[in-house]
């Protein structure tokens, strides 16, 4: 079984490709996390977790959910992490999580996908994003082959920089950077409520048909990137930057 959490669609795409190739089920963790549903999940023996990279690790909301939910029938787990550039030493923490779940750790794989974190970086334009997705397909195929053959993923890079970013920087990043304070909405907002619907932590409510952010944010960028009117900004950092979500590329959920 493939479990996935996705902010703006990259992880969902990868998860669907893997599930299709392996002819297995996919479970959307966004729905479980949003509903605060940590009830047990009946899985197959092999579990593949697909997530984006948040501050050089899997998102805290995903590791938190996994820590509470029982994966009935699971024996082995592979971690697949997409990122704009790198995953740091995330493998160490994934291995520890697998051990806490009494699962055989089968490795962590990195896949570079289009950047979406416009709170700090710039997202690619549509053509650039399509090229990045195309370049990711060989890595996805290799991942599928490893899982199909019951093999561990090759060990990812693990240098001093990686250990520092996933170790010391990750908690500081969450404490100092991951906040909703800077989100604003302009008069072009049509009150559709899509931002509130997509927020995995129910951190957005509509007040007089305008979104209002609370203090519980994970910086998934779904609200700002899926807004149909591009009415949401993250302070001045997002101004003028392309919005990115995978579905806008029109790419089929296939590696063919």
From TrEMBL:
4Fe-4S ferredoxin-type domain segment(s): 180-209, 215-237
Alphabetical list of Gene3D superfamilies matching this protein: 3.30.70.20, 3.40.50.360
Superkingdom of origin organism: Bacteria
Swiss-Prot/TrEMBL keywords: Iron, Iron-sulfur, Metal-binding
Tagged with keyword Iron: yes
Molecular function in Gene Ontology: iron-sulfur cluster binding; metal ion binding
Iron as UniProt keyword: yes
InterPro entries per UniProt: 4Fe4S_Fe-S-bd (IPR017896), 4Fe4S_Fe_S_CS (IPR017900), EFR1-like (IPR047964), Flavodoxin_dom (IPR026816), Flavoprotein-like_sf (IPR029039)
Alphabetical list of Pfam families matching this protein: Fer4 (PF00037), Flavodoxin_5 (PF12724)
Name of the protein this chain belongs to: 4Fe-4S binding domain-containing protein
Annotated source species: Gemmiger formicilis
